[in-house]
């Protein structure tokens, strides 16, 4: 340890170098000392940066990626710089393989203290052009992958009785985004898993949080819209300190939270809640539901989606241009 991780070694690609801590950045040396962490999807992009930062902070890492060569590249890069890492080429979408990732961590490093559920897929499609098979594949990785690896890690952590920290990678898209319905739904599921697991696991000393990142990776290169929102200086290395903080003991008492970081901005995401007024009737028929919306809820409709679109019924009150002259 203690070497300059910003220096490329022969054979490093730009992508690999992008995962390294940036020059001058505090890397919290020793923060992860004695801890073993699984990072899924660690062959490139955000996962690679998370794995490198955990190792740089003294943690032992299982660098998992379905692309086994890339997983090995990340693990080798960490070892070359004096860190501890093994590679896993398992597929998180298969429960048995997810179990093997966790088993590998326990076998190599004597236990599992942290899990970063990062592996994911995305694609853009308008709903009427979407493809059921592509949707199924995405849900299998983004939702079942998190469930599979999460359950295996949780069992190992509960059995060991030493607590732990799980960081799920969700997305601001979970609030709803155009052309990203299936991806948004998968990240909404990750948010719900985060809240539910945080409730279930508090007594076992296992904290569960989610991070909504924005970083210049392959996922962003595929979309012109994302590229506009995410310039190249938003590197994965700028998100990694948030994940490192949530994995480390400094975030004790923080669980069930969704934290968004897009490079310069860091904030807590608001969570859905049961909104007042809550009207009561012994039975609701369609007529009284209509009355409830006409007389009460019309003023309580929510702006929707990440873009906070005003519901059509309210637009006449919010639009500055009169509809007649528009
Ligand atoms: N880049 C962003 O701005 C952004 C924004 C919000 C959320 N995210 C989320 O961050 C995570 C990482 O995204 P990224 O931008 O680094 O993407 P990426 O495509 O660069 O990396 C994802 C990695 O996951 C691996 N992977 C895919 N399926 C897998 C499987 N079944 N098992 C194991 N590994 C698998 C891929 O091989 C790839 O190396 C994803 O969950 C993504 O949804 C990214």
Give a verbal description of the structure.
This protein is an alpha/beta fold and 326 residues long. It folds into 2 domains: 14-268, NAD(P)-binding Rossmann-like Domain (Rossmann fold, 3-Layer(aba) Sandwich), CATH 3.40.50; 273-326, no CATH class. 40% of the residues lie in helices and 12% in strands. The chain is built from 11 helices and 8 strands. It has an 8-stranded mixed β-sheet with strand order 3-2-1-4-5-6-7-8, with helices on both faces. A hairpin with a 4-residue loop joins strand 7 and strand 8. The longest helix has 29 residues, at 132-160. The chain is globular. The N and C termini lie far apart (64 Å). Nicotinamide-adenine-dinucleotide (NAD) binds at residues 40-41, 43-47, 64-67, 70, 91-93, 118-122, 141, 145, 169, 171, 213-215, 217-220, 230. Residues 1-29 are annotated as: Disordered. Residues 1-10 have a biased composition (Polar residues). Belongs to the short-chain dehydrogenases/reductases (SDR) family. This is NAD(P)-dependent dehydrogenase, short-chain alcohol dehydrogenase family.
Radius of gyration: 22 Å
Q: Please tell me the total number of domains.
A: 2
Q: What's the level 1 CATH class of the largest domain?
A: Alpha Beta
Small-molecule components bound: nicotinamide-adenine-dinucleotide
Q: Report the mean per-residue pLDDT as an integer.
A: 92
pLDDT under 50 segments (min length 5)? 1-16
CATH superfamily of the largest domain: NAD(P)-binding Rossmann-like Domain
The total beta strand count reads: 8
Strand order of the largest sheet: 3-2-1-4-5-6-7-8
Biased composition (Polar residues): 1-10
Protein name: NAD(P)-dependent dehydrogenase, short-chain alcohol dehydrogenase family
Family: Belongs to the short-chain dehydrogenases/reductases (SDR) family.
Region (Disordered): 1-29
């Amino acid at each position: 340890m203690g070497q300059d991780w910003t220096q490329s070694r022969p054979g490093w690609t730009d992508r690999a170098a992008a995962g390294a801590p940036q020059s001058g950045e505090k890397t919290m040396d020793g923060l992860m000392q004695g801890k073993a962490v699984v990072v899924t999807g660690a062959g490139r992009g955000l996962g690679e940066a998370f794995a490198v930062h955990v190792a740089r902070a003294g943690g032992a890492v299982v660098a998992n990626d379905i692309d086994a060569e890339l997983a090995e590249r990340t693990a080798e890069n960490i070892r070359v710089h004096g860190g501890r890492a093994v590679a896993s080429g398992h597929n998180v979408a298969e429960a048995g393989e997810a179990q093997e990732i966790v088993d590998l961590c326990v076998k190599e490093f004597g236990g599992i203290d942290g899990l970063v559920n990062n592996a994911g897929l995305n694609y853009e499609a308008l709903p009427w052009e979407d493809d059921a098979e592509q949707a199924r594949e995405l849900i299998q990785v983004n939702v079942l992958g998190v469930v599979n690896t999460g359950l295996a890690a949780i069992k190992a952590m509960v059995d060991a009785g030493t607590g732990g920290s799980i960081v799920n990678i969700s997305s601001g898209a979970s609030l709803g985004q155009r052309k990203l319905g299936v991806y948004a739904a998968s990240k909404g599921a990750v948010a719900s898993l985060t809240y539910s697991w945080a409730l279930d696991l508090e007594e076992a000393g296992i904290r569960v949080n989610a991070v909504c990142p924005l970083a210049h990776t392959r996922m962003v290169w595929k979309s012109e819209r994302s590229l506009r929102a995410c310039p190249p200086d938003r590197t994965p290395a700028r998100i990694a300190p948030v994940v490192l903080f949530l994995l480390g003991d400094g975030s004790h008492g923080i669980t069930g939270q969704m934290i968004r970081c897009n490079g310069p901005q860091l904030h807590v995401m608001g969570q859905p809640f049961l909104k007042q007024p809550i009207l009561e009737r012994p039975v609701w028929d369609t007529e009284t539901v209509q009355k409830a919306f006409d007389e009460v809820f019309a003023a309580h409709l929510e702006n929707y989606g990440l873009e906070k679109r005003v519901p059509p019924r309210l637009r006449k009150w919010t639009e500055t241009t009169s509809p007649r002259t528009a």
